[in-house]
Amino acid sequence: MIPIIGKLHRERDVTVLLHSRSLVNKSVVSLLKTHRFARQIAGEELSVTETLPFLQALTTLDLGPSQIDIGMLAATYKADDRGLSVEAFTAQAVAGAIGENKIECREGRDVVLYGFGRIGRLVARLLIEKAGSGNGLRLRAIVVRGGGEADLVKRASLLRRDSIHGQFQGTITVDEATSTIIANGNTIKVIYANDPSEIDYTVHGIKDAILIDNTGKWRDREGLSQHLRPGIDKVVLTAPGKGDVPNIVHGVNHDTIKPDEQILSCASCTTNAIVPPLKAMADEYGVLRGHVETVHSFTNDQNLLDNYHKADRRGRSAPLNMVITETGAASAVAKALPDLKAPITGSSIRVPVPDVSIAILSLRLGRETTRDEVLDYLRDVSLHSPLKRQIDFTTAPDAVSMDFVGSRHSSIVDAGATKV
Length: 420
Description:
By secondary structure, the chain is an alpha/beta fold. The chain contains eleven helices and 19 strands. Helix 3 crosses helix 4 and helix 9 (about 270-285) packs across helix 10.
């Protein structure tokens, strides 16, 4: 399976999934664990002997760039009563990605990371991981403020080793003479600048790039517009945008992006956690009102030890306290779901864990339901709906926060904790 998955990704820009989990660049053990995980959401374990024939069938087709879920193929084939062969069924199921319907491979798109903190380094890891086909996003440069001695080596070291997400999967070397980091063969220019106005990206061969601002320094259109310089076509903010900057929660309102929109926000982590299931519940049951209580990991904005902070409570030691603070997630819901008229309130408590947060979403629904009905519905949403890449589902009775470190889903429904 591994060479087939790799070849489809490299040569045709096809990402093979299993129940919304990418199988690209995965080890033997990871493939087996992903198949085994299917029993938690589909009710029964999935064997590699069941999915391999569909993978082999894909290699015979004239596929264009696409994402294909072999777990869904296997499940729908089992329920199909037409007596088709695996090859014929697969060809019908992926008809939108083959022949005249297929999307032609596009040229790669340059990406610049403005800032290289925790989020920036995670984005860098993802971009490098997905660079195999050469047709997607290519990380070309990182912009940081000038550092001290061995600055480049230290930044590369932070990319190589992460206290939460572990070792970088691959090789990283540094060329201080050219100010570049080479990660898995990808040459990434490190540009030192204190302000966007100091940079001419075209000098580095960068054109029509997407700039991802992960500093949080500017969050309105005026500030983020400073990035729109020669070589930069669009700006994406990894924090909630202010004013008229569109807050995009992928899977929910990404289809509202106008082609000529140059500045976008990805909203906050909590917004991405609550909006997909909130949309799913509103679509099925109607929502009259709601409240979200997020028990949130501490962040770099808080102090390690008690010290002055411009916010009221964030000056108190993050590893020692539960810190009540505000969350903009509730107000951000209105931007992502403008048709939802129900009032949504929210509050947040920062707690001494380094990653993964709990969002307790309490909803008053438009009609009566039962716990089993809600769980069956959300399980189905996580498997078959347009939100399947955003929403995951777990029935593990002993799951705790650290079990979800590294999850590629923005929201995991904890079945055992659900109440009606």
